[in-house]
Structure formats: C-alpha cells, structure tokens
Amino acid sequence: MNKGTYDELQASSSFDIKNKRERIAAAVMLKEILDVRVDPNSIISKIPDDPNYTDSVTLRHIFVLYDKLPQVYVEKIGEKWYYSQSTVDALPQLHKKIFPFGTNIWAKWFPIKQNEEFLKLYPWQWIGIGIILGAFLICFFLLKYLFRFVFYRILFKKYVNEIQDMDKIKSTSTLFSVWIGFKIFQVFVPTLFINPRYAMPVTRGINFVAASIMVIMIYKLVELFIFYAKQYAQKTATQWDDQIVLVLQKFMKFSVIFLGLFYVLNTLDVNIATIIAGLSVGGLALALAAQDTVKNFIASVMIFIDKPFKIGDTIKGDTFEGTVQEVGFRSTRIKTADDSLVYIANAKLSEMTIDNKGYRVFKKYKTEVSISYDTPLYKIEHFLEGIRTILLKYPYTKNSTIDVYLTNIQAAGLSITISYTYKVYNQREELQHREFILLQILRLADVLQIKLFEQSPLVLHNNNQVINPEASEDVNRKLEKFFTDLDTQVAARLK
Hints:
Structural class: alpha+beta
C-alpha cells in the first residue's frame, strides 16, 4: 500500500472478512495506524519464515507485529495466516484514538493541488504544518498567562500573600502551556501522513519531549505543594509536621524522578519489561545488599507512628546525648552538647533504650551567685526577696519548688543558692526561660547596685552601722519600679 505500488485489494487479502469493502477499510485503517506508530519496513524484517510459527509465550500460532500494539497480531487459520478477529475489532477504536479528528482533515479543508508535491510534501501538508505551529505558539503565549492566573488567583488565592518567590508559579504555568502545545503536535502531526521514514523520528522526538516536560511539570508541582506544606507546617505548634514535610519532600521527588525515567524511556521504545526482568535477576543480590536500608526505613516508619521523641527533644541513648534535629528515612540526626552532629541509623535507634528528657514537663534548675562581703545587709535581704518574687511572678515556674537562700560564706564572697523547677517542652524553651530569669536577676542586682562575683578581703568589723532611711526609701522606689516593669514583661511573654 506504499506510493507507487498501491494495491488496497491485494493488501485486504490479509483479512478473513467476506465483505470486500470492509476488508479494504480494515487494511486502510491498519496501514494508517502503522504509519504513525511504527515503520512497516521494520516489521517486515522481523516476520518469521516458519509457516508453523508458534508464539513462545502463548504457545499459539500467532505473531504480534509490534509490542507497543499488542492488539494487532496475525494468527494461523487453517493453512493460512490472517489478521485476527481481535485485531479487526480493535482497529476502529485504535484509529479513533490516534486520529480523533479524522485522517483527511487537511486535504478536505484545503483541496489545493492535491496531487502535486512541493519539496516532497503536498500543499495541504504544508498548510497543516503552518496551522499546527501557529496553534503551538498561541498555546505558549496565551495559555501560560491563563495558567498563571489560575494558579495565582484561584487555586492558591488563600496563600498568595505568603509567596515570596513568584518564579515557582511562573515556571509551572510556562511548562503547562508548552506541554499542551506538544500535545497538539501529538494529535495533529499524524494527520499529515508524512513518509514514515521521516515521520517516525519526528513523532518519537515529540513524544519524548512531551513526556520529559510532563515529568518536569509534575516535579515542579511537587515543589509547589511542598512549598505550601512548609508554609502551613510553620504555623502549627507541633514540630512533627515540619519533619513529615521534609520526609515527604524526599519521597515524592524520588518517586517522580524514578517513575518519570521509565515513562520517558517508554517513549523511546525501550523495552521496560526487559529492564524490569534484568532488575529481577539481580534482585536477590540487591535485596541482600539493601537489608540494612530496608530495616532503617521500617524503623523510621515506626518512629513516626510511635513518636518516642519529637524534633527538639533532648534524648539520651547508649552512646550519645543530644537534641533531635531531623528524622530521615535512613537515620536520625542528633546535635550533641559540643555542637557536633551524630547520625544514628534508625534500626539501631529503635533497639536502644532511649531516655527522652524532652518529655519532662517540669525540669529542675540550680545555680549559685556570689556577692561581695561589703554588701549592706538590707540590700542582701532585698536581693534574696527580689529573686523569690521574680520566680513567683514568672508563670512557668513551680512555686512550691522555689528555694532562694544565703547558703555560705566563702573566700570568694557570700554565696546565694537559687533552685527552682520550671515547665519546659524542648531545649529551646528551656534556654529561653532560663535566659529571662537570669536577665531579671542581673537587672535586680543593677537596681540594688550589688556587685556579683567580685572578691573583696574578708574583714570583720563591729557592725554598729546605722542604715540611712533615705537610702532605704530610694531602694524601695527602685524595687517598686523594677517589679512593675517585670509584670509588664511577664504579661508580654504570655501573649
């Protein structure tokens, strides 16, 4: 049925159909389908010479012309080979799928010198190429703005004010428009009926580019989804959702790349079944080598389900102690007290006895401060009572555990022991609470003009010193102002 040797009646004899018109229609449909999907010459070279050929898979006398079209095959009926009845039944549906707008649309719309060629193409083919290119350009320049509007104003309107980088939406909308443009190529290029020797490389190239753009587009959508998921996770009080977003990001990106690679290779007629079979042959060795990886992955899933600790918790194991920074598919990252990072395999971590110090709602803190010997006694009393008041006013301390006493007289000065228990959920909160209280103690010492950790010679005098009433009143005024400011700061922290 090629040009120059066209004989549709002889070609139709390959079909076991009584009606001549139906036989010819089936032959024409099959030729048009094969011209788009595969070069018929490559099929001819693979046809076996054995008249009793048996398919090794089905053990039947059948031969599939092209593995990408398993519906199209010939079978032996009696002593002759015909296209199967299944092929005849499948042809109209296949033809409609490949040519949704018909096969003669360009020749029908532009019947200009249909039998004359110009540069090996008919005028209606050149017109069709121009219209297809024009449709691609329209899609590229118009649809990208349409998709940008859809993304920016409709789909993500709720979060639009939070987006700092519009490049994510711009690049995604551009990819959408280009992808639709190539889908137009996929639909209309086959209707041009260019010589298969030239059309097949073009068709494969279009399919490859369209598939690649689709994979990149899905990857960009995953990035956009992760971007919004991070925005949402940052608003929540819990930290597990932040970690889940990070793990989800790695898993989704890996899945898109892995599956997308097979999808793109499929457009190049790479036999995916052969690749999978090859992987299965080395599957045993791969499974043995990946035992630890699988164990760590399962352990990470159990950590997410059981939640023995969360991000920010201080945990202690057999050989480490530190703050949990990240829980991945394979390992957990822990920051130790000396700012080093320790990576513990999740499988080993799940087998350890973990002391989660982050679950201690109340944590005890104890410290000592020293003041010089020459500090007036009334200032010492005010200082002790002021520290107690700071701790009592702070809402996160447990009042029954507050102990502030003058505990020792040493060469370094007068020792004041401060001990209290405070509510804390992670190391950051612990440091914030401790910093606030210590800063207030330093401010109190500044108000009372008490020097901390300053050594002075130990000299005992006959203490007949008379306290100046005016100095005492001035101290009281300063303390009153100090505690008023303290109340304001505490109220601000509670908001």
